[in-house]
Amino acid sequence: MDHIISKLLIYGSLPEDCILAQMGDICKHATNHTQTKDELIARCYRQVKRILNLSTDYAFDKNLWHNYLTFRLITDENSFSLTSEKVGAGDGSVNYFAKSDFKAYKALFDYDFTWLEEELGIDCFSHLLNYKAIVKPELMYNKNVSEKVRGLSEQLEQAADEDAFFDAVTGFYKDYGVGMFGLNKAFRIGGYDNTGKVSFQAINNMEKVMLDDLIGYEIQKKKLVENTQAFVEGRKANNCLLFGDSGTGKSTCIKAIVNEFYPQGLRMIEIYKHQFKDLSNVIAQIKNRNYKFIIYMDDLSFEEFEIEYKFLKAVIEGGVETKPENVLIYATSNRRHLIKENWSDRDDMETSNGMHRSDTIEEKLSLVHRFGVTISFSKPSQMDYFKIVQGLARKAGLDLSDEELRAGANKWELSHGGISGRTAQQFVTYLQSISE
Asked: What's the rounded Cα separation, in Å, for the pair 249 and 397?
């Protein structure tokens, strides 16, 4: 196996501790008899355990070795895979080297572990190649990744040669992209790598809400959909600020938008206020990717002493570097003006020809003005609240009359924070819990 791995060029330079590199080294020592049998068995078991852990995380099935190799292929961000994501494989000279790598990968796909098992007296690899997972949908860690990996893995198993391998992999890159951006919908900033770049962590348990699940607020949803539709289609679109009362569905709308437009290449990166200083770094890493990114800021607001909003202002509009066309900023807030205002802000008020102007107030309002679309979510009326409860109850399959729902919803909101969409959802969740 180490001789096959050594032929990798574009997909080479494997991290020393990765499973594939470790397996190559194990095979080399087993062939040369440079480690004891017990040492090699222990090393094999460690790598098998790692494959099993990965398979549990993503609910892989059948041939776990093939699933692992496929996972490596579609998460390896290199010059070839990134170009294939952006413009397709084409007919460049680099394809010669890529096909050479895919010939090696096909050899790895077809690798026969029998000799290693006989040498060490083990049979763990035979079980990996014909594995039956206990998969329950409610326990699946990331169904989206699992389906893509297993689908491509089965396709690669049928590849007759490196040309067929090449077509399958580059077709996947073009359709879905490469790396974790190609496999996941949403991310958060996880820290920094050894080069000083921010790293991204996939959000695997994102709520699967769709816009139809949000009862009411049709005008607000329409404005958000129209702006996002223009964005994913490559037309001009604006940054969006969703503001209004708490519990009215602002954050739910953003999640639903990402779920709705994910198949069209929309991705979301959630960022917190203390990370605004990293905004330029984040944008630099995503501006040349073949996706549309929403940088999402939930419950955005600033106290008087907080100055992080200045980083945000510079990125949205006004900095030297132009914000790339594949990035928009969507934020939610309970405050219309985002930044807390005080009467002292008026101390520098100037009056001229009947006009009143305060530099302090203008400075604070200038952030809001950088959002081209502002959408107001106000607390629902009593009638709208009951409609939301009824709609959610029907979706949940609850067999209660409108009169029973109305009476229960009225009692619930009196002791649970008042009228809002969130209160309605909590009431319906309560009804589900006592009906099961």
From this structure: 21
